[in-house]
Design a protein that fits this description.
It is elongated and about 90 Å long. It is built from three helices and eleven strands, in the order E-H-H-E-E-E-E-E-E-E-E-E-E-H. The strands form two sheets. The protein has a six-stranded mixed β-sheet with strand order 1-9-6-2-3-4. A five-stranded mixed β-sheet has the order 5-11-10-7-8. The longest helix has 32 residues. It is 31% helix and 28% strand. Helix 1 runs antiparallel to helix 2. By secondary structure, the protein is an alpha+beta fold. The chain folds into two domains: 72 residues, no CATH class; 130 residues, Immunoglobulin-like. Strand 7 and strand 8 form a beta hairpin.
Length: 226
Amino acid sequence: MKEVLAYPAQYWHTMYEIWLFISVVIYLVVFLPALYFLIRYRYRRGVNEKAQHVHESKALEVLWTIIPTIVVIYLATQSFAFYRIQRNAPEGAMEVKVTAFMWGWEFEYPNGKKVYSFFNSVVNPETNAYLKPEEVNDMFKAYIPEDTPVKVLLTSRDVIHSFYVQPAKVTEDAVPGRITHMWFQINEPGNYWVFCREYCGTQHSRMAAVLKVVPKEEFNKWLQTN
């Protein structure tokens, strides 16, 4: 298995780890002294019963102003850098047009080939439960080449939908009359879910599709077939 399954999920994992680390440090910086003061200056009869007047410390005030400012600037610049990566597809990305409709998806490839996924193609008709992604009929799967950035151009025929690529942890609204965009890259062959994440009607919970990620040679061969 490859070290990185998908992008931009990897960037969000990195950003999460940065925020988590800084949050833990801030928590400890606040909590440990508070715990110490709680124990050290707890009420004891005959001890420290009279309050003491303590003058301000300008050095301390400057310190706890500068350090949080540096932390906020760092988090803001890192977040903006990751946002730019997430919003801008790499050069040479393969474009796929995706049109959402109640309740399914139309995938159109650069050569005009189309694949349709319908809400009833991803569920078991007897139990009404989701099939496993590998159990969905291949004719309803959108083929994607591995290790290849894919730029998705999104729109909708009816209401607002949202295209969520589960392994890449990225989503974008599909809006009627507008073209929105997003990108992802999956590095491991397999079958992966796409879900609608915007409530769009009675079959919203079953509005899904499967991305079948295959080696580039297999994808090119599939793309040329009818």
